[in-house]
């Protein structure tokens, strides 16, 4: 028997066993969610070690570093072998490891810096600043946007020219300048001995391609390459695998084409579909049993994904007993009622014995977690957010709050500077100077209502920022408390339309998401008459860090997970709440409008990923009314994804809140 003593037959099903113990070669394990793909890969590593393969000959590529750590830990617990020489991690971390050893060959030193997003931004801003681009005529894209453009070009191979023309048509007049920035940015990175995240992959490729001997060494080393979540690799990553494996290494890639959800970041599910073609004599393993979910949830998931054009046909059987309870379909009045329902149910489930860390609330977009965050906080239910920041810690939300705070408190130096920094040509020093001037006008100490026109007269406003500065003054004049537009939601509207929207559009790549966040904030602000009340509520929430009354977190307290679906990939919980399943929210309105079958299919895959995270209990809820401040209340239809499964697969819940249950006869959900 194996030195580890693992009983492979007992711990794996036949299909998993066949993959785990398959002879060296090229293998693709393609199977649906929860079928044990990740488990299979883990046992494969153990099996290779049992076969006497040296740990250093194994390379394990995963989607997150956390996943890599967990898998390595699991292997360590399974086998007695020393696994310290095994390389495991994300593509980026592996690229980094290789580059550290051979940086000189590329004109870098071994101690090259890795630029994080902030570093990238300031480097690009520096480049732009030094290029004398006349941004007065037209807005020039901000660093974030430029960085995304460059990254898309490098990861998809689509020329920058076309990326600008197709995805950023409003910057088309800047083609020449943007190209110049790209080239200067690359040069600056080299000069400063630094690499960005894309370089970690692309420079690794470059290195291995130009030095055959070196490539030979790595090909010899990595005799066994294992890849999890293969469906979300992009062209560069797949090329790297193929290159490293080019000396005849074994490759085992596991994935699920139905869970490919990163095409917007350049991932290409064609990689998994064409694997058998690209690797002669490759074996394809399928696993048809699902170990995660009860049959009730699994059937629903299968039905939901069946609406996509067939790729690899697979239908999962559940290995688990019927639970006897169907997934819940919960139409509910509005987002606040939805949050109350979720919080209430979480408490009930906890009373039934399900620990908080076995529960998750999943949503398509971050802003959809706003009401849930509020409700959990006010009920003292601890939560952890895996995707992104807490709502009120996000830069754009803080920006908008800064305007409101400055309206109510003109001594607020932090807010004043935060706003000044949003304007072109004003940096930290400039903001300091302006604040000094503002102090001199005396308005910071006077008790009467400020004359905001004074703001406009401040010395030291650079030419570039004059337009914005004026706008700021007008907005402030309009927003004086007690004046016409003094309702908190009106204030946010004025800030957004008067000034901030421009900034959002030019600064952030994910404009739509951020705009939605602010609209969500506006609608939340509709609950308050007085802007001070709103502001105190906001600051309490952000300082409390999800803990009621700002209590300190106890070590390892149990927490509910709040996560975007994208970040929930590969994970599982006993109870999953999937919220905001209204048409236009999920599937997203932009995708419905685009009327593009491929985009809709990716959206449906995202839905499938969400459903398949649940082990025992699944709650699908949708707010019937979306209270939007300015367009008025919007009546929402249930997600069109519900049309993809028979009505009797779910149990419709009537949870009150004045809602008498059921959709109007003309608009039956099914
Ligand atoms: P996803 O597609 O979501 O990444 P997956 O295919 O990687 O899912 P795993 O996470 O490996 O699936 O497994 C899902 C659950 O089923 C895990 O809790 C795992 O331990 C369990 N499981 C998988 N195979 C078996 C088995 N043969 N016996 C018992 N439990 C199993
Ligand atoms: Mg997995």
Automatic annotation (TrEMBL):
InterPro entries: DExx_box_DNA_helicase_dom_sf (IPR013986), DNA_helicase_UvrD-like_C (IPR014017), DNA_helicase_UvrD/REP (IPR000212), P-loop_NTPase (IPR027417), UvrD-like_ATP-bd (IPR014016). One of its GO terms (molecular function) is helicase activity. ATP binds at residues 31-38. It comes from the Bacteria. Residues 295-570 form the UvrD-like helicase C-terminal domain. SUPFAM superfamilies: P-loop containing nucleoside triphosphate hydrolases. It catalyses: Couples ATP hydrolysis with the unwinding of duplex DNA by translocating in the 3'-5' direction; ATP + H2O = ADP + phosphate + H(+). PANTHER family: DNA 3'-5' HELICASE, UVRD / RECB / PCRA DNA HELICASE FAMILY MEMBER. Belongs to the helicase family. UvrD subfamily. This is DNA 3'-5' helicase. It comes from Haloferula sargassicola. The gene is pcrA_2.
């Amino acid at each position: 028997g194996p030195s580890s003593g693992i009983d492979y037959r007992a711990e794996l099903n036949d299909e998993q066993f066949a993959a785990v113990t398959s002879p060296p070669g090229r293998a693709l394990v393609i199977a649906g969610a929860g079928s044990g793909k990740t488990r299979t890969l883990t046992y494969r590593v153990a099996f290779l070690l049992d076969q006497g393969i040296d740990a250093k000959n194994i390379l394990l590529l995963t989607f997150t570093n956390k996943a890599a750590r967990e898998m390595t830990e699991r292997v360590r617990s399974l086998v007695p072998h020393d696994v310290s020489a095994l390389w495991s991690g994300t593509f980026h971390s592996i690229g980094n490891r290789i580059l550290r050893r051979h940086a000189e060959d590329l004109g870098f030193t071994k101690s090259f810096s890795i630029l994080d997003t902030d570093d990238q931004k300031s480097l690009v801003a520096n480049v732009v600043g030094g290029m004398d681009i006349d941004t007065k005529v037209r807005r020039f894209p901000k660093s974030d946007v430029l960085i995304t453009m460059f990254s898309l070009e490098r990861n998809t191979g689509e020329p920058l020219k076309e990326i600008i023309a197709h995805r950023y048509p409003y910057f088309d007049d800047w083609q020449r300048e943007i190209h110049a920035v790209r080239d200067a940015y690359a040069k600056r990175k080299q000069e400063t001995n630094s690499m960005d995240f894309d370089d970690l992959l692309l420079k690794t490729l470059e290195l291995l391609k130009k030095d055959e001997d070196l490539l030979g060494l790595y090909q010899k080393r990595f005799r066994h390459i294992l890849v999890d979540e293969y469906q979300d690799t992009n062209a560069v990553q797949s090329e790297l695998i193929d290159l490293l494996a080019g000396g005849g290494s074994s490759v085992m890639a596991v994935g699920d084409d139905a869970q490919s959800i990163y095409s917007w970041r350049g991932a290409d599910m064609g990689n998994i579909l064409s694997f058998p073609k690209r690797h002669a004599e490759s074996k394809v393993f399928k696993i048809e049993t699902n170990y995660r979910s009860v049959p009730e949830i699994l059937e629903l998931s299968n039905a939901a994904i069946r609406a996509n054009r067939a790729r690899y046909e697979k239908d999962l059987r559940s290995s688990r007993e019927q639970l006897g309870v169907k997934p819940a379909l919960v139409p509910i009045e509005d987002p606040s009622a939805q949050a109350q329902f979720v919080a209430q149910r979480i408490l009930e489930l906890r009373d039934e014995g399900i620990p908080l860390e076995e529960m998750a609330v999943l949503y398509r977009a971050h802003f959809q977690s706003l009401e849930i965050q509020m409700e959990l906080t006010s009920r003292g239910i601890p939560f952890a957010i895996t995707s992104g920041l807490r709502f009120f810690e996000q830069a754009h939300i803080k920006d908008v709050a800064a305007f409101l705070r400055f309206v109510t408190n003109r001594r607020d130096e932090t807010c004043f500077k935060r706003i000044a920094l949003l304007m072109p040509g004003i940096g930290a020093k400039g903001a300091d100077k302006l604040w000094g001037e503002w102090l001199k006008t005396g308005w910071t100490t006077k008790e009467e209502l400020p004359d905001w026109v004074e703001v406009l007269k401040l010395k030291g406003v650079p030419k570039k920022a004059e337009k914005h500065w004026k706008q700021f003054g007008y907005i402030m004049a309009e927003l004086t408390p007690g004046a016409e537009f003094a309702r908190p939601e009106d204030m946010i509207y004025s800030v957004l339309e008067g000034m901030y929207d421009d900034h959002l559009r030019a600064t952030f790549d994910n404009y739509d998401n951020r705009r939605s966040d602010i609209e969500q904030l506006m609608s939340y602000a509709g609950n308050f008459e007085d802007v001070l009340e709103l502001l105190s509520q906001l600051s309490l929430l952000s300082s409390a860090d999800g803990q009621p009354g700002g209590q300190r977190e106890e070590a390892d307290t149990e927490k509910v997970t709040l996560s975007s679906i994208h970040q929930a990939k590969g994970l599982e919980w006993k109870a999953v709440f999937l919220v905001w399943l209204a048409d236009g929210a999920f599937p997203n309105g932009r995708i419905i409008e685009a009327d593009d079958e491929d985009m809709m299919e990716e959206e449906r895959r995202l839905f499938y990923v969400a459903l398949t995270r649940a082990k025992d209990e699944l709650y699908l809820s949708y707010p019937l009314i979306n209270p939007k401040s300015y367009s008025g209340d919007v009546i929402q239809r249930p997600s069109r994804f519900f049309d993809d499964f028979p009505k009797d697969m779910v149990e419709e819940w009537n949870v009150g809140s004045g809602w008498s249950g059921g959709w109007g006869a003309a608009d039956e959900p099914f």
